Amino acid sequence: MNGLSLTLSRGIARVTESALGPYQSAVIRIGFAGTWLLFLLREFPHRQELYGPAGPWGWNLAKELTADNHAFTALLWSDGQLWFECCYLLALLAGAALLLGWRTRTAAVLFMVGVLSLQNRSVFMGDGGDNVLHLMSFYLVFTRCGQVWSLDARRAARAEATRVRGERVSADRVGPGLWAVSGLALLMATFTGRFDNGWLIPALMWTAWAVLGLWWAVDRWARSQQPRILLDVIANVLHNGALFVIMAEACLIYATAGWYKIQGSRWQDGTAVYYPLHLDYFSPWPGLADLMSSSGTIMMVVAYGTVMVQVAFPFTLFDRRVKNVLLVLMMTEHAVIAVVLGLPFFSLAMITADSVFLPTAFLRRVGALVARAPGRIVRRGGPTVPAPRSPEAGPEGSPQGRWGSPRASAAERGGGFTA
User: Fold this and answer.
1) Measured distance CA(265)–CA(286) in Å, rounded
2) According to the 3-state scheme, what is the secondary structure of the chain?
3) Is residue 187 pLDDT above 70, yes or no?
4) Averaged over 30-40, what is the pLDDT?
5) At residue 413, does pLDDT exceed 50?
6) Tell me, what's the pLDDT at 419?
7) In 341-390, where does DSSP find H-type helix?
8) Quick check: 27 and 363 in contact, CB under 8 A?
């Protein structure tokens, strides 16, 4: 009994004292924001046909559908061209800000607003990856996904180094400015009746706005550490819960897909793989598709291998080595789908969802390699003089030295406008 109580207390302490998976949450932040940003940039010339007020799925049809399903979309607040361009630009900027980890909390909320606004405006424009992105944009709001590999983490590390040197940290003016502007926008949308279609997303935006203001006020004026510690514990619990939901969502996607494939005969005889390879819409490389479909062995391996990997994956989470092998297989499968079937954004979304299960040691090594890459490129161009570093910075080229670390960013956790 004592052993069980000790284990339970340790588990509660682990969940409340720290935001788990800082590198995994950073990867999914970068992955989903990058997928969305690349999609918007690729479709920029076609944005009118996809989401514009004069597109095939007309404004009146979209208004009627959202009135029935109560889906949130800011694009239906006006049918003007200027409003559409502003919303599209906001979605682009929010994706870029979240990708870089700039004002991560605010950027995550704006990212969710951009994703929901565009996708709910034209619900028939997706390829499967939009459903994953739709859900993950909501979950990311609850995560502390800017702890590492973000501009917020780098700013926090610099602020901590300034404190260690005994110097005064300059007051943050950008965060309160964003908070004031976003509060004014929410106030105008609320009192003009823009949120009459549903309450969930507006309530979430108002809650995030109030919490960010409370956190900033506590950090600035609280005389004791207790209020800050309480807010930190709540944020950690929400982050860890959201990260668990993201992992469960990924397992649910693969489990349901695998079990539904087992029930039908198309995956047993290979036709589920053969026929998509010969559809014009899914054949950017007809020669490659013909080469794959010409071999019955390849069709059998792909069909049965896909089903077995999807069904088995949720059960392999208890064995790290087997799980890592299946992760490689699934990511390779999605990369092949991106090339052979011409579905790059669906594959990017699924690979990003898979990356939440990647080992921390592997992600740290990848981060260190990426951080050292610019220095290697510069050294190839000629000799350079290394810039002076503070003694608090991490090893040269490491994620701690350049992009901040979980410990460094913890010093900024009181600043509610960041991570």
Assistant:
1) 25
2) CHHHHHHHHHHHHHHHHCCCCHHHHHHHHHHHHHHHHHHHHHCHHHHHHHHCCCCCCCHHHHHHHHHHHCCCCHHHHCCCHHHHHHHHHHHHHHHHHHHHCCCHHHHHHHHHHHHHHHHHHCCCCCCCHHHHHHHHHHHHCCCCCCCCCCHHHHHHHHHHHHHHCCCCCCCCCHHHHHHHHHHHHHHHHHHCCCCCCCCHHHHHHHHHHHHHHHHHHHHHHCCCCHHHHHHHHHHHHHHHHHHHHHHHHHHHHHHHHHHHHHHCCHHHHCHHHHCHHHCHHHCCCHHHHHHHHCCHHHHHHHHHHHHHHHHHHHHHHHCHHHHHHHHHHHHHHHHHHHHHCCCHHHHHHHHHHHHHHCCHHHHHHHHHHHHHHHHHHHHHHCCCCCCCCCCCCCCCCCHHHHCCCHHHHHCCCCCCCCC
3) yes
4) 97
5) no
6) 46
7) 344-354, 360-381
8) yes
Amino acid symbol at 69: N
Please write the tens of the pLDDT for every residue from 331-386.
Answer: 999 999 999 999 999 999 999 999 999 999 999 999 999 888 777 776 776 555 45
The tokens for 56 are 């095939």
Indicate if the pLDDT at residue 183 is higher than 80.
yes
Dist CA 237 CA 190 (whole Å): 29
pLDDT band at 10 (very low <50, low <70, confident <90, very high): confident
The reported pLDDT for the residue numbered 1 is 62
The dihedral through the CA atoms of 349, 353, 358, 362 has a sign that is positive
